[in-house]
Structure formats: C-alpha cells, structure tokens
Design brief:
globular; single chain; mainly alpha; 13 helices
Length: 257
Amino acid sequence: RARYVFFAGNLLAVGSLGLVPYLIVWSSLVGFLYFFLYCLFQPEEAWPRMKHLPRQGTVWAACAGVAFSLLLLYALLQRGVEDMAAYGYGRNRDFTVDPQDFLTYGGNLSLRKWLDLGLGVSPNWDYTLYAGMFTLVLAVLGCLLGFRRRMIPFPLMIAFVVLFSMGSFVSSFSYHAWPMMQHFRHIGMMGPAARLFLACLAGFGFEAVFLGGGNPGRWKRAVSVMLILAAAASMAALAFWLYRLSLDPRGAKGFVF
C-alpha cells in the first residue's frame, strides 16, 4: 500500500537524522538488496503486486515523497561540512574517496572481529556486534529445522554484510555499482547490520523449536532444546571466564582487537 511505502521511506530518513550524509548510501543499499532478494525468492507474493504498480498513482506519489524527504535530509546534513575535505584525510575535493581508500580506511576488516557476535569482546571499538547468547544458536536451528524459501534472503544478507565489511570483492563491486558509494568509507564498521537479519533467522529458530513452526518433529525439538541449554551453560561459563580474565589487564590484552 502507498502509505506503507511512504512511512517506510520516511522512517529511513528519520533514522538518518544526526548521522553523516553518506550513511544514507549504505542504508539504501541494504534496503534495496533485501527487497530485491524478497522479490526473487517470493515471486508469487511480490510480482502480482508489482504488475499493478504502473496503474497505481498513489504509490508513485509516495515514492516521490520519499525521494523528496531523502534529498531534503541529504541537503540538511551537508550544511556546515564544506571544509570536510580539508581535514578529512583521504577525501578528494568533491568528498569522494579513491577505491583503495574505500577498501582499507579505518581497518578492522578481518574475520576475527566476528567473534564478538557471540562473545561480546570489543572493548576498543566504537560499536558492538554482540547479538546475545542464544541468537546464534536459534539462527542455526532456524536454518536446520524446517528451512523454507522465504528464509533465504536472511542468510544471503548476512553473507553480504560480512563480505562488505571485510573489504572483499563485494565491497569493490558496491563501490562501482551503487550510486554515491564513492562518498562512503569506514566499511569495517558496517557489521552491525548483520545482527538485524541474524535476529530474523533466530525468530524462525524460536518458532521451529517452541511453537512447532516447520513441523520439525518431536525428537528434533528435544535435541534443539538440549542444544540451547548446552549453549546457555557454555556461554555462562565463558562469560565468567572472561570476567576473571578482565581482572588481569595483561591477560585481557589478547582480546582487544
């Protein structure tokens, strides 16, 4: 419906208030890619509605309203940053960055940072990837128990975010293919977007284990509950061990990365 398109687009605009302008580029890329994957793997739901779009003037009006909101937001966020290129190391005079700078600026590109997803060991970062004790386990169970076609976009989006934040071929392709991505950098800090799609997979896992979604069978549900309890005990032991380790700065140094 047109009002949902309008509200969703303006929610993106409101969520970008106070942020640097080029983060809109990243948010729009993630939103577009998920919508594309949804249409690709759920054609029976998406395409019948897409066929009627040319005749729905209210939808096009809503899209125009969203575009106007985003352009207005971008113009507002650019105010007062005219001298950014003067002190923004690596930026050109038109605020763009070169491909090499795009792929390496800010560092933190290794796979090791994803340990934080389950361990919560990121004391020297400006963000965290930690998603909770049970999220990873439930996400895996969601993929193993009653995997359905509508779930496919979520692991694909997680893979995209992981590869993008590592400065891989996905990052390089996005730099050249997505509009205004030449203004973006700090790709290593975009990992938290994966938590959104991981939480969705965990929701499928919770449904399969506790609500019988996907009809996994009684024994599979019993095994899943035991895995969750084992993961809880392991996480509790690990949390206690990390707490004891943090009391000794020399021992904790190895977990600061």
